[in-house]
Design brief:
two-stranded antiparallel sheet, 2 domains
């Protein structure tokens, strides 16, 4: 796989790649090197690190007594960092997901070859690491693909890209998607354009009147020196979001209420979402899509302010570039062509990846005729990055029973199974079997023709 002179999407090429061609094109990586395991892992775990030949760093962990058992390939979330790959990223992921090793499964996770957006790229890097694992530690009995947050989009894409290899069933036996940013970049991030235009109409400081204007879908000019701390200060000046409510001015309270009610996000995630809509948008649009716009809001009717007519008359409006929309969809949007069981977990009150994204993914699989391959579970939690300990071993066990014995789980059976893990992992089951995610259009303002 040749190195390109600048970061860009390569979706058409990636769709044709197989695991075998990936290995043939990569520079031969050095053998994994033994490392001291992070303290979060159980005694007897063996850990290894390395670089995959394309610049992605990785960690591998094998629990005591693991003899070609279950391997969990982890696709991490983000992409918060938009620069070069950092080796500590994979170690952080292993620490966070030590629960996988505690459940008796081997774990392998890649940093991906660089930061920034690129779903297909990250899927390639995850598959390359799987091949490295097999080369040095042998073929596992089962291989599960676990995607968290943005990594759920990576895992869903990898499961489609590698559904078959040379006409044979692909390497992944099942997929677990947790707190998933699902549906593809445009579907998942449209609301962040909404946030930018509504925030700007209310606050007028990102950019400020004395700064060069730019289309908000660009995120930020490439030569801008704005820092996250400086943006947070601007948000606080307008909304008082970092102050106790009693210390906010009446104008700040009104500004904050308008933004939160129209965009439907909790106040604790406002600055975080604006960060994504600034630096991630800059990376995605200007470095990956050659400056073309995949995010539009023509026809969107915003509701929830004190004066919706004035708000809608004043917000900036942007039309999408069809080529950008198509390129982003090819890179990131699932097609629903899944050939293995898929189990998902999502917090009902996830402040970062809306639970309604699960509906978009469910509809995609149903349109492709693969709805029966999907089981979705939901928890009564308000977190994104990590949910209750006992839930993950229960999900792995349910997925393996589905693969090995054809016993398809239900939300009720997963919830009951989770309770059996509480003795080992604490009273951390928060599953709500009766819950079904609402349509995405109930959370994100629809775009009208």
């Amino acid at each position: 796989m040749p190195t390109l002179p600048r970061p860009c999407f390569r979706p058409l090429l990636a769709a044709a790649l197989t695991a075998a061609s990936l290995l043939a094109a990569a520079q031969p990586p050095a053998a994994p090197q033994a490392q001291t395991c992070p303290s979060e892992l159980p005694a007897g775990t063996r850990c290894y690190t390395g670089v995959d030949g394309h610049g992605a760093f990785y960690w591998i962990a094998l629990p005591a007594g693991w003899e070609r058992g279950v391997l969990v390939m982890h696709a991490h979330g983000g992409p918060a960092d938009t620069g070069p790959a950092k080796p500590e990223r994979s170690e952080e992921d292993l620490r966070r997901w030590a629960i996988t090793v505690k459940a008796g499964h081997a774990w392998a996770g890649s940093t991906y070859r660089r930061g920034g957006y690129g779903i297909t790229m990250a899927a390639e890097d995850t598959e390359r690491l799987r091949s490295i694992f097999v080369q040095h530690f042998g073929a596992p009995r089962r291989t599960l693909l676990h995607g968290q947050s943005y990594g759920a989009g990576v895992a869903s894409k990898a499961a489609e890209l590698y559904a078959t290899v040379d006409g044979r069933p692909g390497p992944y036996d099942g997929v677990l998607l947790t707190s998933g940013v699902l549906g593809g970049g445009a579907v998942a991030y449209d609301f962040r354009l909404d946030l930018r235009v509504v925030y700007q109409q209310v606050c007028h400081n990102h950019p400020r009147p004395d700064e060069p204007a730019y289309p908000l879908w660009q995120g930020l000019p490439l030569d801008s020196t704005l820092t996250r701390a400086e943006l947070a200060a601007r948000v606080d000046a307008c909304t008082g979001v970092r102050k106790p409510a009693a210390q906010r001015t009446e104008q700040q309270k009104a500004n904050l209420a308008t933004i939160l009610q129209v965009i439907r996000i909790p106040e604790g995630s406002l600055i975080g979402h604006l960060n994504w809509a600034t630096w991630l948008f800059r990376d995605l649009v200007q470095l990956r899509l050659d400056g073309r716009n995949p995010f539009g809001n023509v026809g969107a009717r915003y509701q929830g302010s004190a004066d919706d007519a004035a708000l809608n008359a004043g917000v900036a409006r942007y039309a999408t570039d069809p080529q950008a929309v198509a390129a982003l969809a090819r890179d990131s949007a699932p097609t629903g062509q899944i050939q293995v069981p898929v189990l998902t977990l999502h917090a009902i009150h996830d402040p970062t990846a809306f639970v309604e994204l699960e509906s978009a993914y469910r509809e995609t699989l149903e349109r492709a005729g693969n709805g029966e391959r999907l089981v979705q579970t939901f928890s009564e939690e308000s977190e994104h990055s990590y949910l209750g300990d006992a839930q993950y071993p229960a999900l792995f066990a349910a997925l393996l029973d589905w693969i090995d014995h054809g016993v398809k789980p239900t939300p009720d059976s997963v919830a009951a199974r989770c309770k059996t893990f509480e003795a080992a992992y604490g009273p951390t089951c928060r599953l709500r079997p009766a819950y079904r995610s609402p349509p995405l259009a109930s959370r994100v303002t629809p775009r009208q023709p």
